[in-house]
Amino acid sequence: MSRDKACYNIGTMPDIGSWVQSVLNSYAGEFSSPLFPFHVLSALIIFSIIVSVIWYIARVTERRNVSNMLSRLQNMTLKLKDAEHIGHFGSFVWDQDPKKDFWSEEMFNLFDMVPGQHPPTLDKVMGMVLQEDRERASAALLRMQEVPGPFSLSFRILGGGNVIRYLRLEGKTTFGRDKKMQTIEGVAKDISHEVEIDRAKTEFVSLASHQLKTPLTAISWLTEALLSGDKGALNEEQRKYVENIHATDRSMMGMVNDLLNVSRIELGTLQLRPEEIDIVAFAQSSIDEQKQAADAKYIALKYEYEPNLPHMSVDRNLIRMVFQNLLSNAIKYTPAGGNVSVTIARGSGVQNTVFVTVSDTGIGIPKDEQDKVFEKLHRAKNAQASVPDGTGLGLYVVKTVVERVKGTITFESVEGKGTTFHVTLPVAWQESMAK
Amino acid sequence: MNKKGHTVLVVEDEAPTALAIGDKLVHEGYNVLKAGTGAEGLKIALDTHPDLILSDLKLPEMDGMEMIRRLRTDSWGKNANVIILTNVSDVSKIEEAMVHGAFYYMIKGDSSMNDIIEKVHQQLSPQS
Q: How many whole angstroms separate alpha carbon A49 and alpha carbon A16?
């Protein structure tokens, strides 16, 4: 390639080209060899300059972009902070490595702590939970650490000015490759206002249910008087009508009692009075109460119990709710001619417990609904089809009551074949403070 | 069982409920007096000295518990027979009623007419 051609090439960028040419010319004496490729050197220098300029422009642009991004990020952080403040929620991360623990500013505010310090440990947080909720919250916390996946946990803390604050923690636990807890992350929300609204609703239900009991009682007694013949003999048709009014009234009274029990449980006004009872005789009286309903469907009610069972210290009304709901459900959802059986024995696994089972040959609980069976107001589809009227409160009441006395309840069920509930109750009186 | 001559005072503000109880007691052979408020119940009780007072708790003017409390300050009233018949099922109320010497505390919604009559018989004819 000739030198002229090289000059022509670099001439495409006249200013820089001529400057480079002049520089090269000044060294021409030193590199006078006709073999030295001045044109290549010139091209390399020009290329380097172009790259430098582009790099410089890119750097400036990048800096501007980074600056914009930072500004946007700061903006978003401020907005998130505002959102957390307005929505009364804070975000948290507890990591296997405590250096990675994080609490947002609002998270500190929720716990009445000064923001900016290192987030407290889970144990320290539990120390702030009200005594009455601590046992339940600690158990849930342990579960959060042992089981990966989503979690939800509510508890109360004593906030500033001795005001009780209701908090709900929701999030997920992630496990590492070593199958150990890696992080617990999520949000904590102040649900005090929601709890207040719920309480007002429950109080309304309680009041309404209570008021409903008065006219229902009057209907029951007046129809009872008619059926007794005190007001003269009824003909067959009149008797049938009045019997139906009476039965419907009793059914409504049952629903109202369910609502009242639920509202009392939720309001924490279910006052308990433990007393010594003979569980065998008590179960017998509960079975006797349900005998009429069982007979009407030709359902055989069987009762078996282990001899010499210890007397229990329990609240009579509480245990009555357990037997009543389990037995009435069993009868309600068992087709005519089926079997319902109750057995009572000493608890095998845990000492000083009594083990109660209530089995039926009823419609069973569909597999895909079994995890919702104790949820408030839930009724399985086959239960709704079989018995349209129902509140979906019975099993919720049973589970709540059993847990209140520190017992346990489980079940096994096959759709179309039947269900068995297993209840374990402590012999000595124990009451969970959880409401 | 001879119930003739026994007077029962029914203190109940709900007319249909008072009607059902009153009629049943009359049918069973008791003399029946009725009051619709706690104040009226107290007055009739102190004036007529019934053999038994069957009283609700939630009453206008003066509630049933206050009526019993005042009754117990009277020389006759301190030993008067009282059965509480109410839908208030709070343990604290039951305990308070027992402290004031109520013979029975019955929950209306859980009791049939026959349950009530049985308790009245027990109170007025304890030997039978």
A: 9
